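Example 187.
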Amino acid sequence: MQPTLVSHADSVVINNERFRPYLTRDVIAARVAEIAADIDRDLEGEVPILVGVLNGAFIFLADLMRALTIECEVDFLKLSSYGAAKISSGRVHELKSLDAEVTGRHIILVEDIVDTGLSMQFLQKKLGEMNPASVRTATLLHKVDATRIPLDLDYVGFEIDNLFVVGYGLDYAQVGRQLADIYILDD
Ligand code: IMP
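Predicted structure in complex with inosinic acid:
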């Protein structure tokens, strides 16, 4: 099988498309620590459930969880994905639901990236209907110019350009998630 991810000194090539370095692992780690400090402060004395949105959020969630000093729990759900495309289909549905009992609990929805915002809007509504004590949102990346709907985001790592990114859990057609740094499409 031909490799679909080829690393060069100054870029990575996935399925013949070139991505350039954008956010290094050190920059990401520093920002994750800041977000964790904000959550520690905002939810002091509480035991929130971090709800990770699969697949992309699992690396951010793992780092965020280890950077928290307050006690917390974790659960995951999964939404329909982009598949092999680089643009959203505009439709969201759930592929795997939560196992945790969220009634009366503080929830932090953890996303890798907010693009159109449809996934986060869907989840805020869905979790809000489950009678939690609160629902907060944490996303590592936000493509501000792509989000055309009103959306409240509590913790945002980086506001980024409206271009496709890979690495640190984010994929292009399932490739590139394992990259420790984040790369952006070189247009
Ligand atoms: P939204 O519903 O349009 O906000 O899309 C959210 C989901 O789309 C994210 O959780 C990602 O799985 C995926 N996504 C959006 N932009 C990118 C990107 O630039 N790279 C990889 N996945 C992305």
